[in-house]
Amino acid sequence: MKTEAEKHIIEFGSRRIPYRLHRGDRKRLRIVVSPELTVDVFVPKTVNNDQVHLSVKKKASWIARTLDKLESYHPLPAPKRFISGETLVYLGRQYRLKVVKDSKQPAKLLGRFLWVWVEDKNDTQSIKKAVDQWYRKRANEYLKKYLEKCYMVASRHNVPEPLLVIRKMRRRWGSCSSKGRITLNVNLVQVPVHCIEYVIMHELCHLKHNNHSKAFYSLLTRFQPDWRKRKEVLDRFRLS
């Protein structure tokens, strides 16, 4: 059963930084600063709160810098209203939503517009469903394609072939399980192709090193020498 996260605060100078503490079956402490400007700390069940607080306090400078960096990119996007003229992002480029009253049919990208046909233009749930289905179809098509491309590089270094799962994720672009399964966020098709390749390559490296050790980053650099530049671009996009 999943337990609710504990809420804590660390002080860094005059600044108070809240974080959410998650306990689970893991070996090491992990701090995640998300594009939504939240801080999550994942720790083993046996570590007491004082030890956690001390570890987080030691990382306070890095946490503050990361939060400031993410906040400087752009504000959190406003909730989508799913009306004509609204901006959508696909493979790092902006498109406009075009809602047309007509017999319902699958959404289609035509020029710089994503066309959606619905019987009632005020039925935002139907419009949202059509847009979500279009993104999912593109994700199933392109994420598989780019995984195959990246795996051609990784396979030369005895990285096992992964099982791919594509679904919506709230806090991550991708993840890798100890059983060899890579999960990619449907919304990953919103970011530029070179960022998609970075996320996939990052997760492929976890199939050999299930951590963020020097060996992991050494392998990632071998696979993708410019991964830092790609990550910097990716960090400008917020999970929606």
Explain what the structure shows.
- The chain is α/β, with parallel strands linked by helices and 240 residues long.
- The chain folds into two domains: 6-73, no CATH class; 87-234, Metalloproteases ("zincins"), catalytic domain (Zincin-like).
- It is built from six helices and eleven strands.
- A four-stranded mixed beta sheet has the order 1-2-4-3, with helices on one face.
- Strand 5 (87-90) and strand 6 (93-101) form a beta hairpin.
- Helix 3 (124-154) packs across helix 4 (193-206), helix 4 packs across helix 5 and helix 4 (193-206) crosses helix 6.
- The longest helix is centred in the middle third of the chain and has 31 residues, at 124-154.
- It is globular, with a radius of gyration of 20 Å.
Overall residue-averaged pLDDT value? 90
CATH class of the largest domain reads: Alpha Beta
Structural class: alpha/beta
Sheet with the most strands, sense and barrel status: 4 strands, mixed
Strand content: 25-35%
How many domains make up the 3D coordinates? 2
